[in-house]
Design a protein that fits this description.
about 325 residues; two-stranded antiparallel ribbon; about 15% strand; alpha/beta; globular; Helicase, Ruva Protein, domain 3; 2 domains
Length: about 325
């Protein structure tokens, strides 16, 4: 027997119920976050696909506020860690301490760290040392941590929303490629429009600020994630995703001259991420099946952190987003 309407045999009915709930989620978030519709959409896509998001932007663009709001609206247990250069792995994962209950027998007891949450806010992740950044690798992929040789399962669902300042700012450490690949999307956060900033100024300085309400909970979010994997996707769209991702690898000669501009390209995780992401975007748009437009729209946030341009390309002013745009033109 299905545990909720989102898991029934009637996929169309489950999709309709999900669309209605997600409309409520977007309305609640929109009361607090102004003028960042694309950022909200891409972050929601990441969570509904079961992944982790890297939010990149200069300070003051509501990245932390968005994570806190999502924790409230989605009904998740949320914890926040401020990453600093002196932060140690044990400060995130937890540690074992020698426990003496007074019986004459001493035992080691594990004290969980803040990573034991359903939504972990890793604030300014690139301010911590590579050793501390690497503490998240196992957790993000395997949903567990190993301390002193013992495995400890993380709560479900488990998601990491990490914020990052641009690496050209002082005091930052670029994330290693292995960790970047574990982020489902890199969401670039830009400045809001003049109208959105005006609405934000009025709403946040006049009277009490709006407080978001809870719309979902952990089990419902998990049911929606399972529904996403049941949504149909056509063979033509699968082939499109495959051609797009494979064309972004240096050894591929599908686009003349492009391989020389790429230092390293996206691996199979990029194809998997796009397969899930386009389904979620269809849901958020009120559709049962994804389209080519979904693939082309989501290619930049899915691919940009899984690729790097060559030294020669950088010298010519070519960026990763330029390469992704060329890939999209090639497969469209």
């Amino acid at each position: 027997m299905p545990t909720s309407i989102f898991e029934g045999d009637d996929i169309a009915r489950a999709v309709e119920a999900t669309i209605e709930k997600l409309d409520q989620v977007k309305r609640e978030i929109g009361q607090v976050i102004f003028g960042q519709e694309r950022v909200i959409e891409e972050t929601l896509i990441t969570l509904l696909a079961g992944g982790h998001a890297l939010l990149v932007g200069v300070p003051g663009l509501a990245k932390t506020k968005l994570a806190e709001t999502l924790g409230t609206v989605l009904g998740l247990v949320e914890k926040r860690v401020q990453f600093t250069p002196d932060l140690m792995p044990a400060d995130i994962l937890g540690s074992e301490v020698l426990d003496d209950p007074g019986t004459g027998r001493q035992n080691f007891r594990f004290i969980p760290g803040p990573i034991f949450a359903q939504l972990l806010m890793a604030d300014e992740i690139n301010r911590a040392s590579p050793r501390t950044q690497a503490a998240l690798l196992q957790a993000m992929q395997e949903r567990k941590v190993t301390v002193a040789g013992h495995d400890h399962a993380l709560p479900t669902p488990f998601h990491v929303l990490a914020t990052q300042n641009p690496i050209e700012q002082e005091g930052t450490y670029p994330l290693p490629e292995a960790q970047l690949d574990r982020f489902f999307m890199q969401v670039n956060v830009d400045y809001p429009s003049a109208e959105a900033e005006r609405r934000m100024m009025i709403a946040t300085t006049t009277g009490a600020e709006a407080q978001p309400r809870r719309v979902l909970d952990g089990p419902t979010l998990l049911a929606m994630q399972r529904l996403v994997r049941r949504m149909p996707i056509g063979d033509q769209l699968i082939d499109l995703i495959l051609r797009l991702v494979r064309a972004g690898r240096p050894e591929n000669d599908a686009i003349p001259g492009l391989g020389q501009q790429i230092a390293w390209g996206p691996g199979p995780r990029a194809s998997q991420a796009l397969m899930l992401a386009v389904r979620v975007r269809a849901l958020l748009s009120g559709r049962l099946a994804p389209s080519v437009e979904d693939v082309l729209t989501l290619a930049p946030p899915v691919l940009r952190h899984r690729m790097a341009v060559s030294f020669a390309a950088r010298a010519e002013g070519i960026t990763v987003d330029d390469v992704v745009e060329r890939l999209c033109r090639h497969v469209a």
